[in-house]
């Protein structure tokens, strides 16, 4: 294939309820959508998971737009691409900027799947026809409020609960949750809010039988996490620290992580995500698919990736109605009893609702060869 046309859109979607992590609160979700067209008119969609501020990592919506316009799109337009795995190599001269790279790569995977008449899941080598998902719950104003929110999601059928923690919202919160929900699989995500000096506090979490603790220490660390894991019974799962297969290999060899959260954008695309998945499978390290509060398009890519065999723990890809009054795909993503059915039609398997996309668009630019 040759990509002849690319459109970038900046979208703004209001979240149903604000989402608070240790690094900040999301009310409006602003992000880039990328639409790519090849020489025969097939259209593929990619979503940038970069936020509008560099809180989670160093990328932002604007740095992604800059990277796409000035470096990545020129490397792609009008070049012969036989398989989406090649995109990774084409981008190799550009360091990092993984979320920007992933935005185009995802659209090319979508086109490739349609051209080979496969669902994106099949194109990736996925095998499941439904995937198990959990829910990620932000920091609330009080423990009572958190218990109510958790109860609501359990009634909706979600079976695995992830809660955000930060200093001052940790041991007491997890203790209350465990008391109220003795048999529910619970995990905690710190988004890098602690340091090794907090080890005594983190060890207190060991008594609550958590599935894992996600990214307790610095976002770029794999050394202190290895030290922490030696003293913690609860498995550590790295999120922010893993950007590539090489990072995954090093973290696993050091004993810094027993589980890996794979986010397509953070690792630079589906090809790298699949490589990390395959390596972890070989090493007996379970993986699950993280979320970045995506619109339906990013969500559809997450669903496809999660069909690979070593995604054995429930991910964060909840139904569209957890985030949006109205999503930009038809049908919306629906989670029933903690499962999402994997679409079987070619490509991402959802129709992009162009009218709704336009309604949320605040800026747009087209690039042609
Ligand atoms: O660390 O997984 C994270 C949301 C924003 C930034 C980082 C993270 C998250 C989530 C939400 O946990 C996952 C989702 O529901 O998409
Ligand atoms: Mg996380």
TrEMBL record:
Species of provenance: Caldibacillus thermoamylovorans
Keywords: Lyase, Magnesium, Menaquinone biosynthesis, Metal-binding
NCBIfam families per the UniProt record, alphabetical: menC_lowGC_arch
Enzyme class (EC, first level): lyase
EC number: 4.2.1.113
Listed pathway(s): Quinol/quinone metabolism; menaquinone biosynthesis; Quinol/quinone metabolism; 1,4-dihydroxy-2-naphthoate biosynthesis; 1,4-dihydroxy-2-naphthoate from chorismate: step 4/7
Protein name as annotated: o-succinylbenzoate synthase
Family: Belongs to the mandelate racemase/muconate lactonizing enzyme family. MenC type 2 subfamily.
């Amino acid at each position: 294939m040759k990509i002849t046309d690319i459109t970038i859109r900046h979208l703004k979607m209001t979240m149903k309820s604000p989402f608070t992590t240790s690094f900040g609160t999301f009310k409006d979700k602003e992000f880039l959508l990328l639409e790519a067209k090849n020489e025969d008119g097939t259209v593929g969609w990619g979503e940038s998971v970069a936020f509008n501020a560099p809180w989670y990592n160093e990328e932002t919506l604007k740095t992604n737009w800059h990277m796409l316009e000035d470096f990545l799109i020129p490397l792609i337009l009008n070049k012969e691409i036989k398989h989406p795995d090649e995109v990774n190599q084409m981008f190799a001269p550009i360091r990092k900027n993984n979320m920007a790279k992933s935005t185009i790569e995802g659209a090319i995977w979508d086109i490739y799947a349609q051209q080979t008449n496969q669902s994106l899941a099949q194109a990736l080598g996925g095998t499941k026809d439904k995937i198990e998902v959990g829910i990620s719950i932000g920091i609330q104003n009080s423990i009572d409020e958190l218990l109510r929110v958790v109860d609501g999601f359990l009634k909706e059928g979600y079976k695995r609960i992830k809660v955000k923690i930060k200093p001052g919202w940790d041991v007491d919160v997890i203790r209350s949750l465990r008391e109220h929900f003795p048999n529910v699989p619970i995990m905690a995500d710190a988004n890098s809010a602690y340091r090794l000096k907090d080890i005594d506090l983190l060890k207190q979490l060991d008594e609550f039988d958590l599935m894992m603790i996600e990214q307790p220490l610095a976002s770029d660390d794999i050394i202190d996490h290895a030290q922490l894991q030696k003293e913690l019974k609860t498995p550590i799962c790295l999120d922010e620290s893993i950007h590539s297969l090489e990072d995954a290999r090093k973290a696993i060899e050091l004993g810094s992580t027993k589980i890996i959260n794979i986010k397509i954008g953070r690792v630079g695309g589906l090809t790298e995500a699949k490589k990390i998945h395959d390596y972890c499978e070989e090493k007996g390290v379970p993986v699950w698919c993280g979320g970045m509060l995506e619109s339906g398009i990013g969500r559809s890519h997450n669903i496809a990736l999660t069909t690979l065999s070593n995604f054995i723990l429930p991910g964060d890809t909840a139904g569209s109605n957890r985030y949006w009054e109205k999503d930009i795909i038809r049908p919306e993503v629906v989670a029933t009893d903690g499962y999402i059915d994997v679409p079987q039609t070619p490509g991402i398997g959802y129709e992009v609702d162009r009218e709704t996309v336009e309604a949320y668009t605040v800026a747009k630019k087209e690039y042609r060869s």
